[in-house]
Design a protein that fits this description.
Blueprint (H helix, E strand, L loop, with lengths): L13 H13 L3 H26 L2 H28 L12 H30 L9 H18 L3 H9 L4 H16 L4 H4 L5 H23 L3 H29 L8 H12 L4 E13 L2 E10 L5 H12 L5 E8 L24 E3 L39 E3 L17 H6 L35
Parallel strand pairs: 2-3
Antiparallel strand pairs: 1-2, 4-5
């Protein structure tokens, strides 16, 4: 038996948590309108699918998929309201804004999958074209058009409105823009209506309804049933071309990429931060899109040792906060430590030397017969004769005692040196010699290289 938790809350199921969050959203009166439109959408979609089956029109089926997409957009709008009500939690420190991006991405991808399904069915119908009944074709077209336009224009869908403006234009928008410029050249008064960028959802609704009207007229006049399949392919291509740029944009947001239109502004802000007083370097900067219209970022700032960390942090945050809403700034001081040339106690993080003396013996000479009488170094028949050296130790030289208490230069310690009197006391100078001869080795029995060693005799 395990531990008994007396006041532990019971675990709710997934549907229980979903129902709780739905109640939270339904408590807001703004959500009632969306729920009402969702219920009407389900009813309208059911009638349209029944009319698609009775008319045997695949073009009307492709147009009905736009009504199903409207239902996905209403669900996305509800998720947007839920995100505004929820606050960041320890598990989701950046909030729940990415759920909006995920909802838009899923809706656009599902619309494209529906378009691919229509293309596949249309390819099969080209081989064997069935008969199309036009009894409810035109009625279904106007019902779907009115409901789609009324839904798009009545409800302010923040995620899809932002994506439709931020994403690149579709091929349908570009062609309509070219036609609008030509039309406005003839009638300048229409420039305020046609020249601005048209809403892609309204545009595809109007284009799909226009294709269905042409289909109805051609079937009624000439019984040309293949035009229904051609209209279905046209509606599917328009749907795919309209949803693809939105899927690409929302997918880049999910991949935490930097938006291309803010890269120049971010570079300008980084250059301004690097010129602030006390800032030495700005590195490891990373900025990404957290949600629609909100940027997040992190940056490391290296400052001088004498700079005020809080002051630099305030200046950096004020500069970057104009563009980056969620910002993390890591301030650290310069790690290059210059040693101070002052005497005093050794710091605990400085290298310690032992306090006892180390005796470093001089190297032993193997054979005294191979020594040259002048330099006391081994002579090799194959090597050139060594140069004369004043500080060459003799063979009878006593070991030098190194006092490690003298502290080396450059580590914040005292600069030590060996006094000149100690050199004289160790037998490194001739008795009675001057200061200039204090480092010459004492070999009275060795003749000088340049003649007699008697003082004052001129050299040859």
């Amino acid at each position: 038996m395990g531990t008994i938790h007396l006041f532990r809350k019971p675990q709710r199921s997934f549907f229980g948590k979903l129902l709780q969050e739905f109640r939270l959203v339904a408590a807001d009166r703004r959500s009632w309108k969306i729920l009402l439109f969702g219920a009407v959408n389900v009813l309208c979609t059911g009638f349209l699918l029944m009319w698609c089956s009775s008319t045997n029109s695949i073009a009307l089926t492709a147009y009905t998929y736009l009504t199903i997409f409207d239902l996905f957009s209403l669900i996305t709008c509800l998720i947007s309201y839920w995100v505004m009500m929820r606050k960041p939690s320890p598990a989701y420190s950046f909030g729940f804004e990415r759920l909006e991006v995920l909802a838009v991405f899923a809706s656009t991808v599902l619309a494209q999958l529906g378009a691919l399904f229509i293309l596949k069915e249309s390819a099969e119908r080209f081989l064997e074209q069935p008969e199309i009944h036009t009894g409810r074709l035109l009625v279904g077209t106007f019902v779907a058009l009115c409901f789609n336009l009324f839904t798009m224009l009545s409800i302010r869908n923040k995620p899809f409105a932002y994506v439709s403006e931020a994403a690149s234009t579709s091929w349908l928008q570009e062609h309509v823009a070219d036609l609008s410029r030509s039309l406005c050249g003839i009638i300048p008064g229409l420039s305020s209506i046609f020249l601005p960028r048209m809403n892609p959802f309204v545009l595809i609704d109007l284009a799909g309804a226009f294709a269905l009207c042409i289909t109805y007229m051609l079937i009624e006049i000439n019984n040309y049933f293949a035009v229904d399949t051609a209209s279905a392919i046209a509606i599917a291509l328009m749907t795919f071309g309209t949803m693809y740029p939105m899927s690409v944009y929302s997918g880049k947001v999910l991949l935490q990429t930097t938006p291309p239109h803010v890269i120049g502004q971010l570079d300008k802000l980084i250059r301004e931060v690097s010129t602030l007083d006390g800032v030495l370097e700005v590195r490891n900067e990373h900025f990404w899109t957290l949600g629609f219209g909100s940027l997040a970022g992190s940056v490391h700032v290296r400052i001088r040792r004498d700079a005020n960390e809080q002051m630099v942090l305030a200046h950096v945050t004020s500069r970057l906060y104009t563009l980056v809403s969620t910002l993390t700034v890591q301030i650290f001081k310069d790690d290059w430590i210059r040693p101070a040339l002052v005497s005093g106690p050794v710091a605990p993080n400085v290298l310690h030397f032992s306090d006892h003396h180390h005796i470093i013996p001089m190297p032993l000479l193997k054979n005294t017969d191979d020594m040259t009488p002048v330099t006391s170094t081994p002579s090799k028949p194959t090597s050139p004769p060594p140069e004369f050296a004043f500080n060459t130790p003799g063979k009878n030289m006593s070991p030098v005692i190194l006092n490690t208490q003298t502290r080396p230069y450059g580590l914040g310690l005292n600069r030590g040196y060996t006094p000149y009197s100690s050199v004289l006391s160790q037998g490194l100078a001739l008795p009675g010699s001057g200061a200039g001869q204090g480092l010459r080795p004492t070999f009275p029995h060795v003749p000088s290289r340049y003649g007699n060693s008697r003082t004052g005799q001129p050299r040859p």
